[in-house]
Amino acid sequence: MTEPVPVPRSQALFDRACKVMPGGVSSPVRAFRAVGGTPRFVAHAAGARFTDADGRSYLDFVMSWGPLLLGHAHPAITQAIAAAAARGASYGAPHEGEVELAELVVQGYPGLERVRFTSSGTEATQSAIRLARGCTGRDRILKFAGCYHGHADGLLVAAGSGAATFGTPSSAGVPAAVAALTSVLPLDDDAALRAWFARHGAETAAVIIEPVPANEGLLLQRPGFLRLLRELCTAHGALLIFDEVISGFRVARGGAAELHGLRPDLATFGKILGGGLPCGAFGGRAELLEQLAPNGRTYHAGTLSGNPLAMAAGKAMLSALVDGRVHRQLEQRGQQLQAGIERAIAEHRWPLRFERLGSLFWFAFGATGPIRRPDAIPAGARERYAKFFHGCLARGVYLAPSAFEVGFLSTAHGEAEIAEAIAVFTTALCEAFA
Ligand code: PMP
User: Fold this and answer.
1) Separation of CA 224 and ligand 1 centre (Å)
2) Same domain, 181 and 227
3) Which residues contact 336 (CB under 8 A, 6 or more apart)?
4) N or C: which end of the chain has fewer CB within 10 A?
5) How many domains would you assign to the chain?
6) Which CATH number fits the domain that encloses residue 306?
7) Cα–Cα distance between 280 and 124 in angstroms, integer?
8) Do 109 and 20 share a structural domain?
């Protein structure tokens, strides 16, 4: 295993952070628990790279976990933010910027007629579920094991034991009574889905799914599974929610809905939508969204919803996606990366699969065929990944500090950066499989 590189300034900052912040971080995965070692404290970032507090530079494949489709500190986005900041950071009143961003979202996403802004992806999913319950008058929701939808109580739920219908809390602090309203099914299981709807279809307010599950590996679904889900929701009057917080604007301008030619009833967004600033949204057909306050009886609000800086960054981001060049470039770079890694896999005969969809990728350690659900991820992936991760980190390539998180490409990852990454990945894989 590669010797850890000394990062004394990051270590000192981490020690300081741990005295005033739980685990030293604002979000748990940043603490490096799954891979060990010292989290890198970022000093500044530009394009495809960031520099840490010790002055070391990294080619970044985390990209803030998705928002930075155009890379760090893209001039169009930073200029839009600076100009907006000079006009005032927040108004708590309507402004043109939110209308412009809403128009861009509605124009780009299949079937979307109305959109409401939030400050995070978590707020978007939580509010979409409340709206679904408000619209249907039903309480029960269904989710899938391996999909993450943020940290609202009703979504931090794991499957109950055995054939139990009711979910159980996956975090302390989530009441069992709340978790019991959420049921959890396996992905990629048509029979389980049919059985669920046969028994509970009439009670189901909504089914929420990441149409491109990217939070426990990249679990690419069969189009037929998503189609069946759409059909069953329609047949039983349950609303289908596509959580496109990662996939939205990334796998296509119109997200997974465009890619699969499917229309959810509601869709949730975050990440890319805010161009790196705190922002989320949920949207759908007018007849559903108009049931939100002030027109309707389902409540949603936010002091910073529609924040002018986030709207300006989002407008700069989404405007860049209209002519299709960004997505064509991302696909080319993705193909370049995939070809390089698959060549190395074939040459070395590693038990490893490189999963990719557009600018999302994942190293599936131990896998030989497609993996569509988390319980199919081979055991031992975690240990192998930790070695691989540190081999990359020591050579200046930053991947997610967890075997089950995906990698993100941006337009700042040019041909040269991808070639550099292929070389480093290959060397680090040789070490990890040694
Ligand atoms: N849904 C999905 C699919 C996500 O990936 C995430 C965050 N990774 C969320 C919801 C929650 O978004 P946020 O972290 O902005 O609250």
Assistant:
1) 25
2) yes
3) 415, 418, 419, 422
4) C
5) 2
6) 3.40.640.10
7) 6
8) no
For ligand 1, residues with CB inside 6 Å are 65, 120-122, 125, 148-150, 210, 215, 243, 245-246, 270, 280
- Residue 71 is predicted with a pLDDT of 98
428, part of any domain: yes
- Reference 282, options 168, 292, 389; nearest CA is 292
**pTM (2 decimals)?**
0.98
Does residue 234 share a domain with residue 113? yes
Number of C-beta neighbours around residue 112 at 10 A: 25
Across the 434 residues of the chain, what is the mean pLDDT of every consecutive 10-residue run? 84 98 97 96 98 98 98 98 98 98 98 98 98 98 97 93 78 96 97 97 98 98 98 98 98 98 98 98 98 98 98 98 98 98 98 98 96 95 96 98 97 98 98 96
- Catalytic (active site) residue 143: no
SS3 49: strand
From 58, 109, 148, 398, the catalytic residue: 148
Tell whether 106 and 189 lie within a shared domain: yes
Q: Are residues 141 and 235 in the same domain?
A: yes
Of 25, 155, 209, 246, the one to substitute when testing ligand 1's pocket (max ligand atoms within 8 A of C-beta) is: 246
Q: Which of 62, 271, 272, 277 to mutate to test the pocket of ligand 1 (most atoms within 8 A of CB)?
A: 271
